[in-house]
Amino acid sequence: MPSRNATHVWPFGVLFLLFAGFATVGPFLVLFYQRLGFSGTQIGALAGISPLVTFAIVPLWMRFADTTHRHRLLMGIAFLGAAAVVAGFPFLTTFASVIVCSVLLTGFIAPLMPFADNSAMHMLGDRKHRYGRVRIGGTLGYGIAAALAGLLVERFGLFSAFWACSGLFTLAFLLSLRLTTSTQTRDRQDAVVETCGGCLGSPSGSRSW
Q1: pTM of this structure
Q2: How many beta carbons lie within 10 A of that of residue 160, not counting itself?
Q3: d(CA 32, CA 193)
Q4: N or C: which end of the chain has fewer CB within 10 A?
Q5: Domains, in order of start, for the chain
Q6: pLDDT tens for residues 49-98?
């Protein structure tokens, strides 16, 4: 059984870094698309991909995790996959390459919140009423990173946002190694609804890969 402090610290840290990654790159995606010369229609298509891919992919991730009982391993794969793909965005030049990588990135990011929630609730044990104290890590991470991201881009350029996001996802992966998980995720429909809701407007989802 994790220590009392660990039940809060590790999930809090993972959510802090995950949401910080969202805030670091999310506000600059449209600028990136405009820099590539994409039309409004193309940018709109990219914005619409995230909820569609999320709705399709989250149940598959959750089913595979529940079947294999390898939730932490799959969460690590998702973090590293997202870090690798987002780091490659500055090297993309065509609409086709961006749309492919957007689908890949959304596919890796989509299960991260359900996995993180699963770990947090499992580690809290009979103190699940304290989940709000853990989830606030995401709010703080998003707020702090959003405030700093503009300064980062102004000083080091637009591409730095993507590389900073990749670094934050990598750090989140390292912290996720300290998490413990249950062998069953919460209801898949709830996971899809929450994650898609994030894509459409919550702080976790100011992203349109």
Answers
A1: 0.85
A2: 18
A3: 28
A4: N
A5: 6-203 (1.20.1250.20)
A6: 999 999 999 999 999 999 998 999 999 999 999 999 999 999 999 999 99
